[in-house]
Fold Integral membrane protein.
Amino acid sequence: MPGTTNGSTSTKTMGVLTVGGLVAVTAYTVALGSNGWLWFIWVVLGLLTLGMVATSNS
């Protein structure tokens, strides 16, 4: 694709994984009850994604 770089592609991929993870963790919580480890892992994934976005914009 013109205008895209590997950095922006991996940032978009991380964004999709983060949103998909949120949907999965939310569905799990609704169906089976809350699991603190799943939410913790999702928060870490979200922070990694934010870090990638911040560094790719620099």
